[in-house]
Amino acid sequence: MGTPLEPRAEQATEVIDRLEEAYPDSTISLRYSNRLELLIAVILSAQCTDERVNKETKHLFEKYDGAEDYATVDQDELAEDLNSITYYNSKAEYIRDSCATILEDHDGEVPDTMDELTELSGVGRKTANVVLQHGHDIVEGIVVDTHVQRLSRRLGLTEEEYPERIEQDLIEIVPEDDWQQFTHLCIDHGRATCTAQNPDCADCVLADICPSEKGDSEIDLAAGEPW
């Protein structure tokens, strides 16, 4: 079992330093060319891989141009355009409703505050954080997706289970200048090494400071269950 550094802020800093060395080009993987496309891509990415989303949005963004196109298209037509995406019917409804709100309440522009973004259909704090960070260059939190959730628990950075509580724990220990990059680093490491089902602890740059390291530890702290 790895031995995490104390206090947790020191553990967080060491994690960031090592992952930055391992993934020097870490950044958002969703493809978009404007704020509305970013918003739509993030809505679609819930419980779906970025690779799949990018494949679908390639033709989606060619067909639809602006909030009015999405708000006025027939629900069934938009759903059909998204049919390889998980929960495509619900996501089509979210996109139509969000774009209608953007037209009616925000002059056709994607809003730039957390409160306004989370009032849009299908937009929670995670999605809003991504849009603020990459669409408006506003960083006021940490995006907690499934990778961040899993890694932060495995690495002993939090014992919380729910994203908003995890985010609050991370905000206390991750340097503010690293809030945005922390997410990208966790995503890259979660995809490459610290996977959900079979993490490659033997080849992990964090193994010696990870209390979940399965060479010795009996418990996966992300799940709270034995390996």
UniProtKB/TrEMBL annotation:
Residues 44-192 form the HhH-GPD domain. Its cofactor is [4Fe-4S] cluster. It is an enzyme of class 4 (lyase). [4Fe-4S] cluster binds at residues 194, 201, 204, 210. NCBIfam families: nth. It catalyses: Hydrolyzes mismatched double-stranded DNA and polynucleotides, releasing free thymine; 2'-deoxyribonucleotide-(2'-deoxyribose 5'-phosphate)-2'-deoxyribonucleotide-DNA = a 3'-end 2'-deoxyribonucleotide-(2,3-dehydro-2,3-deoxyribose 5'-phosphate)-DNA + a 5'-end 5'-phospho-2'-deoxyribonucleoside-DNA + H(+). Belongs to the Nth/MutY family. This is Endonuclease III. Keywords: 4Fe-4S, DNA damage, DNA repair, DNA-binding, Endonuclease, Glycosidase, Hydrolase, Iron, Iron-sulfur, Lyase, Metal-binding, Nuclease. HAMAP family: Nth.
